[in-house]
Design goal:
The chain is mostly helical. Helix 1 (5-23) packs antiparallel against helix 2 and helix 1 packs parallel to helix 3. It has 3 helices and 2 strands. The model has no long low-confidence stretch (mean pLDDT 85). It has a two-stranded antiparallel ribbon with strand order 1-2.
Length: 111
């Protein structure tokens, strides 16, 4: 862990964000977004001295979270798209292929 307080704050924020993403805690992520914006505004006005090692850790944490966010978004999109019904296909005694569409469900669940 870096000894630089700004680097520690940034890394702690990214770790909290990672936990929020993994838990799908969107309320916490919204609060963290606000904190991240405030921290970035502070950093823009007075960039602290960050070492190359600090910057590497921050970059690694940011890339990790970016990948997690992308995966979470893909999962949310996939969950909202209807899935195609599987079809059944077989071969007749003469070797011809016969395909049968899947029957629609007897009832439809609504959440």
């Amino acid at each position: 862990m870096p000894r630089n307080p700004p680097a520690q704050r940034i890394l702690a924020l990214f770790e909290s964000e990672r936990r929020g993403i993994m838990a799908a805690d969107f309320t916490a992520l919204d609060v963290l977004r606000t904190e991240k914006e405030a921290l970035l505004a502070q950093l823009e006005h007075g960039m602290p001295q960050l070492t190359a090692a600090d910057l590497a850790r921050i970059s690694q944490a940011a890339q990790r979270n970016q990948g997690l966010i992308a995966a979470a978004l893909r999962g949310l999109r996939d969950a909202h798209q209807p899935k195609p019904r599987p079809a059944f296909s077989t071969y007749s005694a003469s070797g011809d292929r016969a395909a049968y569409p899947a029957a629609p469900p007897a009832f439809e669940r609504k959440a």
